Structure formats: structure tokens, C-alpha cells
Automatic annotation (TrEMBL):
Domain of life, per lineage: Bacteria
Record key words, sorted: Transferase
InterPro entries on file: Amidase (IPR000120), Amidase_CS (IPR020556), Amidase_dom (IPR023631), AS_sf (IPR036928)
PROSITE patterns: AMIDASES (PS00571)
Protein name per the record: Aspartyl-tRNA(Asn)/glutamyl-tRNA(Gln) amidotransferase subunit A
Keyword Transferase: yes
Length: 394
């Protein structure tokens, strides 16, 4: 199926071994170093870039017995939410090849959904694990910031960069998270949350079909629903953009100056935005983030977790469009939790009533409280079978 989906950039011929992930086929987003061949970041600039060593996260998975079988497509330099701006060509959604898989870890979401791999690594700065997980109908984790090492991962913005796993089940995502963080703890028992906080100010522009599926998922949990408002939450997108674009312009300054034509046009537009962001503006965004983190933490004090849709719209078709407008709408519900230090789990909860495309929710918990999310996700997947559904041609 990958000939149609284009999730794989490079096939890797490595054996697995014994360990907690024995027999698990893994794909690695191609901005995470996998020795033995190019790690391209889906960019013409890095077509011949061959790392000497595996990234630490790849080494940990391999040491746990997983078999690395592929490097996976992404938006160039992990910049974008559609995965159409890739030197390897656009990645497609296995549920409907005319639609995007989400981004920037689009190949990771698509490869898991298509059954090409059992487990994939993605990176998540502004939503780049969670958006593909939702669009492709799989589970994805943005872990607590700093809990998973970034050695050997090409950066976007250190303040918010993370590496997270994607799989069809919460169980496999949780097992992978244990390996990635070096934890030997067992998995939590499945447990429904008792109180779910709903950040109501984020739900004013959600597609009705998406909202209906999300409401049904909330009903499955059977928890007390607590409307919450977090001051400044609607500023999250601008804060993320300021931090990310400022850093992208710095990281890619030499490439912007010497050969801008080698970037995909969409990438060039986004990366170029950061050249006008001043040091004072970036410092102000850092302070705004700290204040918002405190308010998010306070909102979590009275509930077990926060819940929102992951995508506010149905999965879009891959028609050419203004990249900034598309990305701003698609990522509007993921950016707030990128500024939170704690984890967010993207969970598939059904299909859009009009198109049959996957719909997902995000569950967000306090810092280092991944097990709260895993317990809820494990319980939900015991009650439902959405995670067992497969794309028609998978």
C-alpha cells in the first residue's frame, strides 16, 4: 500500500531482538537519525546526510527488541501540518488518498494506519504527532516535555520539541513510552476518569460532525463534565508561532541566505516568517508561555484530565491552499497543549458522519502524569472498537 500512501522514505533492513518490544516493527520519522543511510528531514538540503549514529530514541527502541524497518515521510524540516511539502513527495491518508495525513509526522500516522509498521516515532512541536494520529485514526502521544531525549533529532524549537510514539493501541504507545523514558514500570490498570474538564473557549469553531463524535466519546467515559476557562488560552497559537518561527529562522539562516530556492515553497514561506521576529518579541512569548503554563496547571487541579477534539475540522483534501490559513485552523486545538509542560494523548474515537474520515480527541494531564492518560485510554479502548478499524485497502 505504501506505493499509494508514500509514507516511507527509506526501507531499513535491521533485525529485531529480545526485549519488551520484540516483534514490533518500527518506523522512524526522517528527522530522527537512523544510521546506515540518509536522514533527510524530507529536504533537498539533506539528501546525502548520513548520520554516524542512531538517535538515542532509536537506540532505546532497538535495545528493547524492536525492529526498525523504515524511515518515514514528513513535512520538510518538520515544518507544516499537511505533509504535502516534502522532497520525497506528498504523503497521503490511507483512509482516503485524496486527503492529507496531517503533519508534520504524516508518514508516521499513515504508516501505522496502513499497517506498514506497528509503531512509529514522530516529533511534536505544535501538534505534529497528535494531528497525524487524529487524521489517520491512530493513537499518538506528546509526552511530558523533556522526558524523552532529543539527541540525534533535528530541532524545530527546543522550548517545545518532543518525540512521541504512534500506534493503533494505547497499550503499545504506553509500552513504547516506557522504553523511550527508560522506565521499567508496568502499565497502569484501565480506569475511567471521574472528572473531565472541557476548555469551552476552544470549542466555538468546531465542525458539527466532529463535535458530535467527540460528544459521543465523552458520553462513553461517563465522567462528570466540568466546563473550564483558561485565561489566555486563545493566545497560545500566536505564542507558539513566535517561538517556533523565530527559532526556525535562526536554525536555517545559512540555508535561507545561500539557497532559498532549495526549500519547498510552503516551507520557505513559513521559515521566512521568523526573520522579522525580534529577540524582545521572542522573550515576551517565553514569559507569556510561563504564565499560560501556570493557568493550565491550575485548571487541571480540579479535574482528572482536559479533553478537546484534536482537529476542529474534518480531515481536509490535499488541494492547494494558503499554507498559513490551513495550518492555523488545523493546529488551533493542539497549540495550547504544546505550551503545557505535561503530556497529551491523541485518541481515535470514531468517524465523521459525512465523510467517514477519522475523528480524534486529545486528553491532557499534569506534568509527568502520562499514566492518567494511559489508564483512561486503555479503559476507553476496552469499551469501544474504533482502534480496530482499518482503512479499506490496508
Amino acid at each position: 500500500m505504501d506505493d499509494h500512501v508514500n509514507a516511507v522514505i527509506r526501507w531499513v533492513d535491521r533485525p529485531g531482538g529480545p526485549g519488551p518490544l520484540a516483534g514490533v516493527r518500527v518506523g522512524v520519522k526522517d528527522n530522527v537519525d537512523v544510521a546506515g543511510g540518509p536522514t533527510t528531514c524530507a529536504s533537498a538540503f539533506f539528501a546525502d546526510r548520513v548520520p554516524d549514529h542512531d538517535a538515542e530514541v532509536v537506540r532505546r527502541l532497538s535495545d528493547a527488541g524492536a525492529q526498525v524497518v523504515a524511515t518515514l515521510n514528513l513535512s520538510e524540516f518538520a515544518v507544516g501540518v499537511t505533509n504535502q511539502n516534502s522532497a520525497a513527495g506528498p504523503c497521503r491518508n490511507p483512509w482516503d488518498l485524496s486527503r492529507i495525513p496531517g503533519g508534520s509526522s504524516g508518514g508516521s500516522g499513515a504508516a501505522v494506519a496502513a499497517g506498514t509498521v506497528d509503531l512509529a516515532l514522530g516529533t511534536d512541536t505544535g501538534g505534529s504527532v497528535r494531528l497525524p494520529a487524529s487524521a489517520c485514526g491512530v493513537v499518538g502521544l506528546r509526552p511530558t516535555h523533556g522526558s524523552v531525549p532529543l539527541d540525534g533529532v533535528f530541532p524545530v524549537c527546543d522550548d517545545v520539541d518532543t518525540v512521541g510514539p504512534l500506534a493503533r493501541t494505547v497499550s503499545l504507545v504506553a509500552r513504547a513510552q516506557r522504553v523511550l523514558t527508560g522506565s521499567s514500570a508496568g502499565l497502569p490498570e484501565p480506569a475511567a476518569p471521574r472528572r473531565i474538564g472541557i476548555p469551552v473557549q476552544l470549542l466555538t469553531d468546531v465542525d458539527p460532525g466532529v463535535q458530535a463524535v467527540v460528544d459521543a466519546a465523552v458520553a462513553v467515559f461517563g465522567a462528570e463534565v466540568v466546563p473550564v476557562e483558561v485565561e489566555g488560552l486563545l493566545d497560545a497559537q500566536d505564542i507558539v508561532y513566535t517561538l517556533v518561527y523565530a527559532d526556525l529562522a535562526r536554525i536555517h539562516a545559512d540555508r535561507l541566505a545561500s539557497a532559498p530556492e532549495r526549500f519547498h515553497p510552503d516551507s520557505l514561506v513559513r521559515i521566512g516568517l521568523g526573520r522579522d521576529i525580534t529577540a524582545a518579541q521572542r522573550a515576551s512569548a517565553v514569559e507569556a508561555r510561563r504564565a499560560l503554563q501556570s493557568r493550565i496547571s491550575a485548571a487541571l487541579d480540579g479535574v482528572d484530565l482536559l479533553l478537546t477534539p484534536t482537529l476542529p475540522v474534518d480531515v481536509p483534501r490535499a488541494d492547494p491552499d494558503d499554507v498559513l490559513r490551513v495550518s492555523r485552523r488545523l493546529g488551533s486545538l493542539t497549540y495550547p497543549w504544546s505550551l503545557h509542560a505535561g503530556p497529551t494523548l491523541a485518541l481515535p474515537v470514531g468517524f465523521h458522519p459525512a465523510t467517514g474520515m477519522p475523528v480524534g480527541v486529545q486528553l491532557t494531564a499534569p506534568e509527568d502524569a502520562e499514566d492518567v492518560l494511559f489508564a483512561a485510554g486503555l479503559w476507553y479502548q476496552q469499551q469501544t472498537d474504533w482502534h480496530t478499524r482499518r482503512p479499506p485497502s490496508a
